[in-house]
Amino acid sequence: MRAGAITWQLAQVFWVGGIWIMHFVLLQALEKLGFASLLVQEVALYTRPLLIGLALVCVLLQLLVLKQAMPARQLLKDLRGQLLLAALLLACSFLITQKLWPAAQYWLMYSYLAVGMCGVLLVLQPIPERNTQR
User: Is the pTM of this model over 0.85?
Assistant: First the structure.
């Protein structure tokens, strides 16, 4: 299960770290450097869907690792499974809303930050390990 634990952590670093670094570091740094606010908004509009897409792929990978570590019927009872499913639904919601209703900027920002919060809460959870007792 060591490969699963490494995959779990690597996927978490990519999607959770990417979302928070972009929102709290990159965009803030561009504003502090004196970039025009319209340019900062364009960078955000371009990178947020890319990061949500990456988060979607990584969440699916983490769900696969979690499914291997525990029986499928316990997936929804475990907090990690609930957080991953919430992040999955929010990421899908973000991408569908962006495609069908791009003017809904408040919902896009909410779902982006909610995915990030699910990620932060997931980081606080233990790494899944396979139960040897069955």
Answer: yes
